[in-house]
Amino acid sequence: MREFIKNLSICFAAGGIAGLAYALGLWAMGHYGFTRFLHVDIAPYLSNAYIYQRVVWGGICGLIFLLPWRKSWISRGFLLSLIPAGILLLVLLPMRGLGVGALALGTLAPLVIILACAAGGIAGSGWLRAQGK
After folding, report:
1. Residue 89's CB: how many other CB atoms inside 10 A?
2. Transmembrane region positions (predicted)?
């Protein structure tokens, strides 16, 4: 039981790091004009509330890292990041009125969301690798 709690804590922390990387990646894409170049209306403002929300939800999503995956940490991070990206694109953003895939933000909005989630997933997976997991 102690080992499970330890793994749970490590995965939550990795998810928090992934959430931070997601938030900073999405902010950087908006701040440096990548989203504008793709004609996607995503350019979040960097604030404490913006970071905090994504770190907490990232920690919760980090529990996905409990799944047994022993292949490359990069492929683990990218492929497992598709789960929260799918939830965002198919459930959460449509609930906010942005349509399936958040297409109301632009035709390439799903690409931007997937790239930001991949940045987070790979960062979290890399942190897990550094921890020996």
Report:
1. 22
2. 7-29, 49-67, 79-97, 103-128
Q: Is the dihedral of CA 114, 116, 119, 121 positive or negative?
A: negative
DSSP annotation of 67: S
Tens digits of per-residue pLDDT, 83-109?
999 999 999 999 999 999 999 999 999
Domain ranges, ordered by start, for the chain: 2-130
Give tens-digit pLDDT for 3-49. Answer: 899 999 999 999 999 999 999 999 999 999 999 999 999 989 999 99
Q: What are phi and psi of 132, to 5 degrees?
A: 85, 15
**What single DSSP character describes residue 43?**
-
Distance CA 41, CA 44 (A): 9
Q: What is the pTM of this model?
A: 0.91
Please state, in angstroms and as integers, the Cα–Cα distance from residue 15 to each residue in 25, 67, 80, 129, following that order. 15, 13, 11, 13
SS (H, E, C) 99-132: CHHHHHHCCCHHHHHHHHHHHHHHHHHHHHHHCC
